[in-house]
Amino acid sequence: MPIAMIGLAIVGIVVIGFLILFFRFFGLWFRALISGSYVGMGKIIGMWLRKVNPGVIIDSRIMLTKSGIDVDSDMLETHYLAKGKVENVSKALVAANKANIPLPFQRAAAIDLAGRDVLEAVRTSVNPKVIDCPDSAKTGKMTIDAVAKDGIQLCVKARVTVRANLERLVGGATEETIIARVGEGIVTSIGSSESYKAVMENPDLISRRVLEKGLDAGTAFEILSIDIADIDVGQNVGAKLQADQAEADMRRFQAEAEKRRADAQAQEQEMVAMVQENRAKVVLAEAEIPMAIAEAFRSGHMGIMDYYRMKNIQADTEMRTSIGKSE
Question: Which domain holds residue 105?
Fold first, then answer.
């Protein structure tokens, strides 16, 4: 008898628990039923046990069904368990369906799990987005500066109109890549122009050249147009570079001249030293003359009359030299 009572108690507790769960989720079950998006009560309770918000799954399934999109509740639950944004994905699918944009649930879920805002991507695909190039908020630069072949600098602002490419959104490059490629294309186009006047006369040449490069390859966007919003003339970079080069050449020539002057001064000092050395040799040689005369007297090679004649010649020579200097 006690065993029967315990069994009845257990059955009663189970029935009461089931009734509590039934009445708790009855509203969701009934709402799904009358909306044509039937989800069994067992699945709803299973979602609750798996810590999935049944309200999010049911509401998203109802929204999709009313839009004519058939997505199983298990797929929605799987995306929820993968930390995906089920409501955002469902809204993106509805928006894509209304805009006749092919977007399967698997791709939308992959985009969402990749960290991209799939709803914003669909909106950008329907309503193209305009990107400023350069992005002054991120780079701090207001213009893209480039120099034509004649040395004149041009400062350009561009606006790029893009549309999201849902097929390349997963793994595709972001807006920063678009801005960088457009900036590179503008610099290349201006740099290949013979004169800045040609660019000022036809700014659309830049747009056409940049678009021809296919800059949207491998990105999550499709470039629709590139418009030159503003173009201004900057510095004469060529003249500035020539002036800097001339100044550098002048300094180099001055350094070479200074080097030659220093070499000449050093050579002059060497010559002065050589003259002093030769004078010293002359003085030494002259100092040996009296000694040679004395030796000549001792050896008998020179007499007293020879000595007087030599002195007379020296005196006459000194007189002539003094007369020549006075004149």
Answer: 2-126
Report the candidate in 144, 159, 160, 148 with the shortest Cα–Cα distance to residue 201: 148
pLDDT at 111: 84
Cis peptide preceding 134, ω within 30 of 0: yes
Q: How many CA atoms does the CB half-sphere of 249 hold within 13 Å?
A: 6
Q: What is the pLDDT of residues 296-313, one digit of tens each?
A: 777 777 777 777 777 787
Q: Quote the CA–CA distance of 24 and 11 in Å, as a whole number.
A: 20
Rounded CA separation 189/221 (Å): 22
Cβ-in-10-Å burial (0-12, 13-18, 19+) of 163 comes to: middle
Q: Residue 162's domain is classified under what CATH number?
A: 3.30.479.30
Do 144 and 229 lie in one domain? The reply is yes
- Are 156 and 186 a contacting pair, CB within 8 Å? yes
Going by their DSSP bridges, the two strands 144-147 and 152-164 should be labelled as: antiparallel
**String of DSSP letters for 240-276:** HHHHHHHHHHHHHHHHHHHHHHHHHHHHHHHHHHHHH
pTM (2 decimals)? Answer: 0.57
Last residue of a domain, one of 198, 215, 240: 240
